[in-house]
Amino acid sequence: MYRSVATRGGMPTDSGDGGVVTLDQVPRWNDTDQKPSYLYGPGDSSSPFFFSDPLTSSSGAGLGSDGAASRFPVDHDINGRIYLWRGNPWNLEVDAVVNSTNESLDEAHSSPGLHTAAGPGLAEECAALGGCRTGMAKMTNAYDLPARKIIHTVGPKYAVKYHTAAENALSHCYRSCLEVLIESGLQSIAMECIYTETKGYPREPAAHVAIRTVRRFLEKQKDKITALVFCTTTSSDTEIYKRLLPLYFPRDKHEEEVAISKLPSDVGDENGETIIDERKIRIKPLPVLSSIATNASTTSVDIPINDSALTLRRSSFHLDTYLDPAFMSLMKDPDQRRKEQWEKAAQAQNGFDFARLLGFGDLSGPPLSAAEEYSLHSRYLAKANSLNLSEIDEMKILYRGGVDSEGRPVMVIVGAHFLLRCLDLERFVLYVVKVQFIKSFPLFMSVLLFTGFYL
């Protein structure tokens, strides 16, 4: 039924002889007349098309068709643009074919046989693209292929723990390929199975994502795409697509009704991506303006004109009704904020005060007089001269770097030698006072330059 260039034992093959296949040789989904596998029932393993569906639970089958609305109604216009082809996509004469590859777009991880069929020019152009991110798509020329362009995309790696992320990334792969197709003014595309064995994505869940993403995209952009070919290269993939296509592209009312009970509970949003309720942005509707205006007018009576702050508060109180209490609860009380700031300032004052030790005094209070500065500096200089600070001098931490525009000395601290865990910080500051006094006075340093600072 699915015609190809070559057949083996009555079954379609991948047409490995390199023959060109046109779209009129591939039947449309509307034109096919195969018996869907779901007619055998979900537990009939004797069906030749039977595959266990990990996404469809027994609870989902209880929906039935009595009164339930179909999430994918019959659309003959869309179905007429869908094809299913058993073979390599690069044998098809279409505008673009899809290549599943890795982030480097190299030949080793591309679809088997694609680079051989396209010629050496494809590898050179792929190398010039600079790679491609997972879920994205890039286009190149098709070179020796019957198609006009090749769209390269990178599928995700699969892990059960990150199932939702992988599912949405795979959905974005298909959507990106279709977006690139439309942006380039092309209208027909052949899409292979983007998931690969090396990345461990289960075949059937991936087929669900691929088919529903294409369906949602065509619902919005069907006027811009004339043909979309699902290409499979193995018999298992072919049978999976033959079984799942009627769920998302039903061809009559009977298939639509059966699909209601067979579809998984989560078929994604309007783009086919998985919906996560916890990540939805919840917007609270605004209250009725008429009631707000009435309340505002009744409470603005007898307001003193000269009290501008109170007037502003009373006239704008109704704005609180626009704010979500859950959001307002995240805002700290101003008094609580000030109290925390005072507590932090008190803790800082109880700690080691570098500014006061260096002669700047308490920077949070009034500045010291010249006499107080001289007295403070003299005390610390006397203490520094009474101590043996040779171990700090041997560490080669401090150097003088000249003076600034006002004649104040500039000291350079080599941060790579400044090991805070192995250094008494108070002794180091006293060493700074001592070295500074040897060179010049007063102590005030214009700039401390730190280079390669490590704690």
TrEMBL record:
Q: Which domain of life is it from?
A: Eukaryota
Q: Which InterPro entries match?
A: CRAL-TRIO_dom_sf, Macro_dom, Macro_dom-like, Macro_GDAP2
State the PROSITE patterns in the record.
Answer: MACRO (PS51154)
Q: Which SMART domains match?
A: A1pp (SM00506)
Which SUPFAM superfamilies does the annotation name? Answer: Macro domain-like
Specify the Macro domain's residue ranges.
69-249
Q: Where is this region: Disordered?
A: 1-20
UniProt xrefs under Gene3D superfamilies:
CRAL-TRIO lipid binding domain, Leucine Aminopeptidase, subunit E, domain 1
UniProt name for this protein: Macro domain-containing protein
